[in-house]
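Why this split exists: single-chain examples teach little about how molecules sit against one another. For that reason, every record in the complexes split bundles all components of an assembly together and asks for one structure covering all of them. Below is a record exactly as it appears in the raw files.
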Amino acid sequence: MSNIPTPQATIRLPADSHVHTEWSWDTAVGSMEHSCLRALEVGLPSISFTEHSDFTPWSINERVYARLGEQYRAMVSAEGLLLPPGLDVEGYVAAVEHCRERFPDLVITCGVEIGEPHWHPEKVDALLRAYPFDRVIASSHSVKRHGGYHMVGDLFTEMPPDDVVREYLADVHKMIEADTRFEILGHIDYPVRDWPADTAGPYYPARFRDEYMNVLGALAASGRVLEVNTTVPLHPQIVAWWCDAGGQALSFGSDAHAPERVGAGFTQAAAMAESHGFRGGDDPAGLWTRR
Ligand SMILES: [Zn+2]
Ligand SMILES: [Zn+2]
């Protein structure tokens, strides 16, 4: 028996359930069609477009303004607020339909990423009534401070880095507890993208164990789904805590804002999720669940 080679187990990749294209206000180089081609090229069974729908008016001070690209400066009002343009739901849905016709071998779903939905309940209700999205990701990119809304990355130079992460996670907990319809919590590790490692040292999730468990416990109790976002990528410790909290399902998202990023890091992410007992089912667009 020992001479018979063991077939190499091939990792089955999950759907990329978090992708932005030219229909998102912050995606200048996006292309829905090229994102579909890329998904087929890297062997993904399915792609879900999740264009941004943001209603939070971000406070932009002079220092932040100086760093903004030209296309974003045009969105800043005289009062110093960045007002993201609304999602063109009709145009977006038509583009998804077009891609479904053009790429019949790829399962394409139509979703939305809503920023801080708990701060804008009426606008979120209207958006979700406008179209029955297949996927609804709720995510936060912001922290409330001094009566204004600030992008998380802008706060690391203004307050202790640990406090930024703690305030972020405390508000994500409020977002989960609020009466908002969403299925997936997007990028729980969003602040890590801008963590100032040069001054604060490496980022260790264990420093924020209680805050993460608070969020994960509420998310699991609500029957919702944790996203393995591959941008940072998500630390395996968070998935271990998700299991401890009773979490049952995972979604995977590259958070691609350019076609070449679709499915990025998915082989490693899938292996990590498998090592925690998560497996995909028969539905190519489906979530991974604990088996
Ligand atoms: Zn996001
Ligand atoms: Zn996103």
